[in-house]
């Protein structure tokens, strides 16, 4: 006979029991929302709706720098269907905001300082009406010459009341008179990259009866955004609530606060729900980008290749406002020498305001820019000394116990030599064949104009490092609650799932600790205690640590009655696969039986050990933990056309402990692919401060055809004893390292210096001698 599913069975041969689902730490547990996202049913912010909904639009400056002579909103207000128009005059509270430094106005009033700065916002009964009304706001400008070169910012007239210099860090370490036998110098430029989130910003604001407002946003730091919004609206924080909606991916601070704030103002003004969905152009103009950076380096080494001294000047273009530029500069200066032992280092770093688009937190900020420069310097040293580039690096790599140029001892695992040896010794990919059917292997693809005889292969290396959590005294704390009732566990934690896999990790932690398979993670809002920003993999550490502590407290509550009954301590009981057993086998029961009729819960915090700001000489224990990565890049370059094809990237990474193998692999591969874009294609061009081609046609992201073979050749699981589970963040360090490795490989193929990212075709062309 057959069952309802149409599978043949007999009474003598019952159908096999289904395989148990993976669970707990170390299992490749799938994302809870993976199916909804792939089927298109996942609720993003752009999908929100409310009764009586109004639509918003924002008027943005068409100039990079101008004085506002007048703003006339009368025509917009008179348009049928328009319910409200707000400008700087309608901001009832603090008129400035900003993630790092509150120096940015909600609406420009006297001066616009960058292309796309908000001037006014409109609410209307139809999105087209809102857009037309925003366009009907008449602004008279006196256009000013923009300051777009960060080197000119030192001498230019102040662009902001706070001045043009945001931060200066002089790092002095060792003997300034030290000199090496061999000296190499270089000047390097890193372009502006956009985080290019999958979905543009969108949100819904709903007024509350108490005079407050609720904001439904894809925020990555809801409590900080709530506090900013409350201050600008002239409300107390408990009158503003942020509910985090589905976040469509984030590799930076996901939401532009200049987008959020007008939304709530319009809802408060109209008394109606207001929705705003930004266009891709508005998204490019509004949110922060990676800092364009100018770097000057001088490396000293002895005759055998050991580093003696590194001198560097690092200039970050912060754009019009400070944002998190001070933090980015600290990372750039601190890691300016890379994961190498440098007994003498003298680094000068500056972050300055210009009239370019604002820069801020983007994955690997500061560390990515300097990695490209110091690895180029290591290639130059190897060439001048006649040494193998990998061997030169191996002579100088950091290890646990070494001292960074900021004076901080590397106390965490630092298996840099092991990582480099792993990628160096991994077999190289086969050379492409000169046959018609393999033309797709050539740079430019099957329709490219290249000739096989002009293709040169290059092999290069990159070693990168990043810090985890905040730095320089940042209070990295997170709070979580774990509740268990009727055999189901619920986790409440304000850690936003941005694609890094926190909700999956939280489920695994509870499954591992309590032996309960069904675990739910509650939606995030600001009624929960704060967990901090979703960046640098910090939620794996602080929020995962808080969940683990809360789950262990519930575990103790569960086991104490049983331990007391049998006259033993809870430490002698263990939970495995949903069963509670004692060390001697006397006690054996299931978690379900032990939980019957009980409701248990606990709240816990995780706060890593404190750090300190860098002092006047750039010294201090500024970082909690470090992560390292080695990448070997293999590229094919058409030396006539300058086109580059990344053939393979071999990756070895120090991960501490693998918590979810599938998720970890995906994060590394995604980070490496992002690095390919930084190396070859991604450059947001801003001539005279104006964003050129602010769309995904003009901004060239790598596609599936651009992604190379990515070989994860080694994952070093040497646990960091101060981190929960011993795990390290994994996403940022391959982003930092891959561009440097690719540039190194292009140098090897062409013999050209390659001192700019992204790599321009002319930089890879080899002219006939």
From TrEMBL:
Residues 1-29 are annotated as: Disordered. It holds the Pfam family Ald_Xan_dh_C. Residues 39-145 form the Aldehyde oxidase/xanthine dehydrogenase a/b hammerhead domain. InterPro entries: Ald_Oxase/Xan_DH_a/b (IPR000674), Ald_Oxase/Xan_DH_a/b_sf (IPR036856), Ald_Oxase/xanthine_DH-like (IPR016208), AldOxase/xan_DH_MoCoBD1 (IPR008274), AldOxase/xan_DH_MoCoBD2 (IPR046867), AldOxase/xan_DH_Mopterin-bd_sf (IPR037165). It comes from the Bacteria. This is Molybdopterin-dependent oxidoreductase. It comes from Streptomyces albidocamelliae.
């Amino acid at each position: 006979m057959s069952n309802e599913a149409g599978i043949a069975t007999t009474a003598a041969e019952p159908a096999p029991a289904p395989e148990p689902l993976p669970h707990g730490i170390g299992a490749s547990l799938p994302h809870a929302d993976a199916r909804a996202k792939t089927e298109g049913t996942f609720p993003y912010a752009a999908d929100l709706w409310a009764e009586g909904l109004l639509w918003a639009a924002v008027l943005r400056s068409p100039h990079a720098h101008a004085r506002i002579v007048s703003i006339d909103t009368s025509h917009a207000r008179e348009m049928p269907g328009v319910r409200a128009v707000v400008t700087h005059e309608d901001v009832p509270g603090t008129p400035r905001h900003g993630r790092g430094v509150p120096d940015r106005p909600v609406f420009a009033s006297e001066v616009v300082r960058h292309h796309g700065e908000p001037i006014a916002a409109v609410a209307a009964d139809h999105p087209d009406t809102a857009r037309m009304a925003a366009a009907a706001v008449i602004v008279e400008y006196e256009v000013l010459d923009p300051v777009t070169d960060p080197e000119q910012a030192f001498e230019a007239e102040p662009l902001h009341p706070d001045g043009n210099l945001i931060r200066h860090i002089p790092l002095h370490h060792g003997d300034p008179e030290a000199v090496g036998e061999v000296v190499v110098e270089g000047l390097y430029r890193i372009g502006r990259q956009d985080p290019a989130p999958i979905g543009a910003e969108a949100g819904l604001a709903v007024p509350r009866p108490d005079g407050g407002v609720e904001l439904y946003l894809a925020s990555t730091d809801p409590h900080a955004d709530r506090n900013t919004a409350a201050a600008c609206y002239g409300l107390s924080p408990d009158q503003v609530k942020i509910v985090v909606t589905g976040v469509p991916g984030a590799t930076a601070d996901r939401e532009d606060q200049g987008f959020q704030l007008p939304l709530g103002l319009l809802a408060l003004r109209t008394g109606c729900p207001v929705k705003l969905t930004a266009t891709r152009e508005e998204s490019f103009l509004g949110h922060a980008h990676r800092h364009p950076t100018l770097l000057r380096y001088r490396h000293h080494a002895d005759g055998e290749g050991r580093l003696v001294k590194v001198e560097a000047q690092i200039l970050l273009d912060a754009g019009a406002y400070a944002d998190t530029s001070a933090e980015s500069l600290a990372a750039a200066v601190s890691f300016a020498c890379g994961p190498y032992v440098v007994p003498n280092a003298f680094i000068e770093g500056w972050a300055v305001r210009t009239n370019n688009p604002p820069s801020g937190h983007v994955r690997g900020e500061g560390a990515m820019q300097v990695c490209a420069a110091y690895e180029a310097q290591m290639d130059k040293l190897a060439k001048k000394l006649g040494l193998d580039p990998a061997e030169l690096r191996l002579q100088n790599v950091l290890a646990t116990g070494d001292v960074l140029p900021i004076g901080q001892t590397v106390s965490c695992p630092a298996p840099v030599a092991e990582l480099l040896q792993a990628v160096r010794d991994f077999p190289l990919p086969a050379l492409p064949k000169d046959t018609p059917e393999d033309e797709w292997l050539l740079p430019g693809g099957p329709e490219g104009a290249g000739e096989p005889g002009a293709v040169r292969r290059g092999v290069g290396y990159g070693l990168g490092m990043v810090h985890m959590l905040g730095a320089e005294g940042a209070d990295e704390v997170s709070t979580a609650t774990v509740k268990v009732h009727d055999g189901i566990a619920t986790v409440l934690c304000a850690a936003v799932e941005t694609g890094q896999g926190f909700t999956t990790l939280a489920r695994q932690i509870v499954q591992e600790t309590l032996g309960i398979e069904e675990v739910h993670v509650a939606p995030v809002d600001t009624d929960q205690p704060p967990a901090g920003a979703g960046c640098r993999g910090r939620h794996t550490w602080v929020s995962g640590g808080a969940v683990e502590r809360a789950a262990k407290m519930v575990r103790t509550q569960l086991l104490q009655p049983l331990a007391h009954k049998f006259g033993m301590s809870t430490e002698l009981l263990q939970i495995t696969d949903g069963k509670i057993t004692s060390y001697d086998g006397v006690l054996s029961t299931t978690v379900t039986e032990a939980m019957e009729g009980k409701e248990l819960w606990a709240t816990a915090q995780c706060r890593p050990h404190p750090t300190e700001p860098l002092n006047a000489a750039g010294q201090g224990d500024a970082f909690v933990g470090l992560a390292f990565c080695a990448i070997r890049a293999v590229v094919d370059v058409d030396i006539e056309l300058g086109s580059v094809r990344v053939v393979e990237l071999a990756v070895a990474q120090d991960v501490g402990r693998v918590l979810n193998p599938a998720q970890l692999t995906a994060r590394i591969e995604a980070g490496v692919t992002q690095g390919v874009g930084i190396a070859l294609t991604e450059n947001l061009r801003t001539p005279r401060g104006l964003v050129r081609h602010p769309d995904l046609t003009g901004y060239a992201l790598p596609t599936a055809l651009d992604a190379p073979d990515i070989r994860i050749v080694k994952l070093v699981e040497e646990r960091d004893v101060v981190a929960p589970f011993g795990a390290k963040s994994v996403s940022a360090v391959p982003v930092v390292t891959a561009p440097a490795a690719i540039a190194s490989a292009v140098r090897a193929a062409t013999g050209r210096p390659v001192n700019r990212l992204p790599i321009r075709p002319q930089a890879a062309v080899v002219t006939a001698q």
